[in-house]
Amino acid sequence: MKKVVLVIIIVFLISLGIGAYLLLFNDHIELILNGEKEITIEVNNEYKDLGITLKNNNKEIPNNKYTINKKDNLDTNKTGNYYIEYTINYKNKDYNITRNIKVVDTTPPTIEVNMEEVQKDYCTNKISSDLKYTANDNYDGDITDKIETIEENDNIILKVKDSSNNETTKIIKINYKEKPSNKFTLNGNNKVYVPINGTYKESGTKYTDGCGNKLNDKVKITGEVNTKELGTYKLTYEVNDEKTLTRNIIVYDPSTNIKTSSKVIYLTFDDGPGYYTNKILNILDKYNVKATFFVTHQFPSYLSLIKTEHEKGHTVALHTYTHKYDIYTSVDTYLNDFNKMNEVIKEYTGSYTKLFRFPGGSSNTVSKSYNKGIMTTLANKMQEDGYVYFDWNVSSGDASGAGSSKIYNNVINGVKKCDKCVVLMHDIKSTTANALDDILNTLTSNGYTFDSLNENSPTAHHGINN
Known about the structure:
The protein is α/β, with parallel strands linked by helices. The protein is 21% helix and 32% strand.
C-alpha cells in the first residue's frame, strides 16, 4: 500500500514539473496591429502607419528583439482598396499580419461662376449675360465639361459630379429685362416743303413694339394737304391715344420762296460711339433727323450705342476698329482692321455694312509714310469688292478744335454751297454735341431735307493723293 501511494506522489511531481517547464520555457507569440485593422483615409492625405505590437505569453517584446518587414501596394493619391502586410521575424520564426486600407474621395467638387445673377432678354427669351463657369475637383481636376445646365423656375441650375459621385449644385438667378416700350417715329422729316401744284408723298410712320414687331396698322392719320393752295398743313399721327406725332407740310411758291427743299443734307458722325453719342442721338430725335454714324472700337464701354443708332433708324457705317494710321501698312493690315470692325457691327445690328469711310478720308497723305500708293490700291479694291466709301463736302471743323460757335457757322455756311451736302462731324466732341441743336433748328426752319446715307447716296469723293 505504501508503495502505491509513493508511485502516485512521484507521478504527480513529474507532471507538475513538466507543466512548469512548458509554462516557463514554451513561447506563446501574439502579433497585434496598433490601431484598426480596417482603415479609411481621404485621397491625397498622408497615411501615418501605427505599426504593430509583438507579445510573448501576453508580455510585450521590445522591438530590438525582432525584425519587421512591410510590404504594401498603398497609393494615397488614388482611390481604391490597399493593404500593408507585416512580416516579423522572432527567434528565427516568421509571423504575419495584414492591415486593410481604403482610400476614398468624399470631397465634392467646386463650381466657380462669374456672376450670381443673369439677365434674360424679354424679346428673344435668351440669356443676354455672358455667364461663364468652371468646375474643379480635388481628385479629378478640371471637370467643367461635366457640368449639367438646367433652366427651371427662373433659375439656371449648374450640377456636376466627380468620379466618386460627389455632387455639387450652384443656382444662378434669372432676372428678366423689363419689356421694352413701343417705338413710334416719323418716316422722313417733320417739316416738308412742297411747291404749289406739286405732289405731296406721304412717308408714313414707323410704329413697332419694343421687340421690333411692326404695328403700323394701328396708326391713325388725321389732317389734309392741299397742294393747290399756299399754306402750312398739319398731319397728326396717333396710336391708341398713347402718343401723337405731327408733320407740317408747307406749300410754297417757288417764285418767291427759296427752294431749299431741293437740298439734302447728310449728317455724318465719325469716331464714336463715345460719351457724347447719346446726347447727339437725343437731339436728332428731337428734330426727327436721320444721320449716318461711321463707327469705331475706340471706346468699348459705349459700343452698345451702335445698336441704339441702328434701332433709331440711323445708318451704321464702318470707319475703323483701331483708328490707328498704321492700318495703311498693307492691304492685309487694312482688311484685318476693317473686317474686325464689321464683325462688331454685325453683332449689334444683325448684318454687315457695305458703307465705310477711310480714316483721314480718301485724300489723306499720312498713309504715304506707311505705304506709298496704298490709298489708290485700297480704294480700287474696296469698290471692286462691292463696298462704297464716303468722303465729305462740308466740314464742321470739330476735328481741328473748332468751338461750338465756329462749328455752327461752318455747317450753316457750308451747306449753302452744295445741293447734296455730306457733312463731316464727330460724335466724340462735346463742342459738336453743344452746337447740334442750334444747327438743326436753323436748317429745319429753312426747310432743308435730311437723310442718312445708303449705297446710292452721293459719295462726295475727294481726290486721292496717295
